[in-house]
Amino acid sequence: MSADVEPVLEISGLSVAYRSAAGDVKAVENVSLALRPGEVVGLAGESGSGKSTLAYGACRLLRPPAVITDGGVTYRGRRLAGRSVDILERSPAELRELRWREIAIVFQSAMNALNPVLRVRDQLLDVVEAHLTLGRQDARERVASLLDLVAIPRDRLRSYPHELSGGMRQRVMIAMALAVDPEVVIMDEPTTALDVVVQREILGQIVELKQRLGFAVLFITHDLSLLIELADRIAVMYAGQLVEVASAHAVHHGPAHPYTRGLLNSFPSLRGARRELAGIPGSPPDLRSLPPGCPFVPRCAFASDACTKLDMVLRPVPGASDQGHVSACPFVLPGAKAPGRPTEDVSEVAS
Amino acid sequence: MSAARRHADTLGGAAPPHAVVESPAARRGPLAMRADRLHKDFSIGRGRSRAVLSAVRDVSFDLHRRAVVALVGESGSGKSTVAKLLAGQEHPSSGTISLDGRPIDVASRRGFRRYKSSVQMVFQDPFSSLNPVHTVRYHLERPVRLHREVSGRDAVEAVLVGLAEQVRLTPAQQFLAKYPHELSGGQRQRVAIARALAAEPSVLLADEPVSMLDVSIRLEVLGLLSELRERYELAVLYITHDIASARYFADEALVMYAGEIVERGPAEAVTQQPAHPYTQLLVSSAPDPDALGSVLRSGSRVATRASGSALASARGCRFSPRCPFADDRCRTEAPPLVAVAPDRAAACFRLDVAAPALLHVHGGGGVEDMNQ
Fold first, then answer.
1. Residue B282 near chain A (CB below 8 Å)
2. Residue A197 domain-assigned?
3. Torsion sign, CA atoms A94, A95, A99, A103
């Protein structure tokens, strides 16, 4: 994916805060991220890192007490013929045109996202009729072909959500997102609740559909090992900020930020020699009381005094094979060895 | 006499009645708990559509002190039902569970109490397994007073502090005073582990203990469990859907499919050279960062496939509807677990096609036995 193609979705300096009596909780802080046409960008982070808030913020789907405090989101789709749309400036009516038609979302929990009292067909018809002007027969045909797309037999059109397995429900969600041929699909942990075998099938289907239909994907997950396989580029989030963005290859072979490395080391690998697994000591950050400077300092093996004064911006990683490889940590280069464990001792998993 | 039984008899008189193979967990410590031919049926539906679902069918295994046995399977495979049977929350339809050589007696109140103090559980969700209106101290104090012979405030307090420190909730006094909502997921799960330890159990049943936790702290909790089983000589049953974690954490892995154990053996061997087609499918479905770019391109257009039926009336191998190697025999006859190595077994008729390398290495005696 060359860097000079104009991004279809561009998030620049976005900040989101949750308002509370005790003050703002900064869930997303100054995040910039671009999604180019046909690209799969993975957004990795643990619960509370702000990855979902970022994605919903970019579509203006946040509800109070969440407020966008700063930044911009620009959308440039093929159908807009060169025009660009500032999503944060649109009126609600204009947003309705944009959502689903241009940017669709697949939510995590298919059980909750589907309406339990409507048949699959009616739910799909709703979407198609709301966004396209088609005759009744054409709309029905389109709905049926959507099920073909995700390999669900057409006789399931009359099923209610509870009559489908978890994997099928998630496939219906994907069909629904693709119903009106969007340019961008945001997928929020679409396979987390599924068994690995089903997860694999669905991911294969997403990749195949993406290649066929040419949409771009923002794929949100906590599973970094999955993203390495699936995504073109990966953005890693910690405590509401991006800490590293790089190609999947660079993340796998030369991760720079200590948090990214810690995450990679947290997955027991099934293949290859047994590695020493470390995990990351300490607890995930409390967004209400972040330390000054880099938020990862309390858990970082490389931390020094300079880190507490660090300005959290993404800087190019020197000597990286990937031109676009940026990291928020200027002190640690890919391959650097940790000076020793901080705070508590983390025992390895027994052999 | 079943074929598996016949094969087991050839192993010699020392083998327990159900054992097809020697458990790799047995090397780590003495036997603590034995599940022997457990069955659990549930009846589902009403009237004409009434049917019997075998959630657990002919499941046998041993838990040894200081050893971790992983029970691996997808949702609905019956792994949690096994945990409930072992914990005494459900009664098996047939089969026996014995603790330290004695069949368990949970019918009497006292028998149940004694059993509960020896067998403790850690649940999946640390957010719902702790009572939000009580402090950590309360959660730990109750089992200590119930199951341990400690009395006197100071003595109990000393035990509580010790427990909190064992699970690395330090400073202990501070943590004991906290409420669950003041703790992170990892800390809550450590409270749940401390609560289990409070009863001084010999067996710990951990049902997906880390699957709800953040990735970065999972290893720490698993590491803690691993350390505690050494210190307290616990026999651990680790129930998980994540076969990769079983590789690192368990001595023996039991793979369950539709209520049955389809493969068992040393965790490393089972994950590195899976014998049963289902285990092979599980292993090949795990994310593989090294397969960069090749993603999922193979087999992406898999049509919706029938999944295995756990209905008691289903015939043949339960995996056969999904199995690429299934033949007519697989669809009509249920394959028993047979040894493929001294410490490994798999329930498959088609091992000669599914895992030829494995049979070649180990001579394949078990399978020949089956084919008589």
1. yes
2. no
3. positive
Contact partners, residue A186, CB within 8 Å, separation at least 6 = A55, A58, A59, A103, A104, A105, A106, A217, A218, A220
Whether residue A13 contacts residue A32, with contact meaning beta carbons closer than 8 Å, is answered with: yes
Given CB atoms, is A46 within the 8 Å cutoff of chain B?
yes
Terminal C-alpha separation, chain A: 41
Task: Report domain B3-44+51-100+202-285+307-370's class.
Answer: alpha beta
Contact B217 A249 (CB under 8 A): no
Token pair, residue A159, equals 């099923």
> What CA–CA distance (Å, rounded) separates B140 from B158?
12
Residue A333 inside a domain? The answer is no
Among residues 240-269 of chain A, which lie with CB inside 8 Å of chain B? 248-249, 252, 262-263, 266-269
pLDDT digits (tens, 9 = 90+) for B143-202: 998 888 888 889 999 999 999 999 999 889 999 999 999 888 889 999 999 999 999 999
Residue ranges of chain A with pLDDT lower than 50?
1, 341-351
Q: pLDDT for B205-218, tens place per residue? A: 999 999 888 888 88
Report whether pLDDT(B323) > 70: yes
Cβ pairs A/B, distance under 8 A: 155
pLDDT of residue B222 exceeding 70, the answer is: yes
Residue A90 placed within a domain: no
**Any domain includes A221:** no
End-to-end CA distance of chain B: 14
Q: pLDDT digit string (tens) for A86-95?
A: 888 888 888 8
Q: Considering its fold, how many domains does chain A have in total?
A: 1
CA atoms within 13 A on the CB side of B22: 12
Cβ contact (<8 Å) for B215 and A229?
A: no
- Residues spanned by the domain of A161: 110-181
If we measure between CA atoms, which residue out of A278, A300, A193 comes closest to residue B222? A278
pLDDT computed for residue A24 by the predictor: 86
Q: Tell me B361's DSSP state.
A: H
Q: Which residues of chain B neighbour A210 with C-beta distances below 8 Å? A: none
Total-model pTM: 0.84
**Looking at beta carbons, which residues of chain B come within 8 Å of A267?**
215, 244
Query: Per-domain residue ranges for chain B?
Result: 3-44+51-100+202-285+307-370
Compute CA A36 distance to the chain's CA centroid, rounded to the nearest angstrom: 14
- B238 closest CA partner among B226, B250, B230: B250
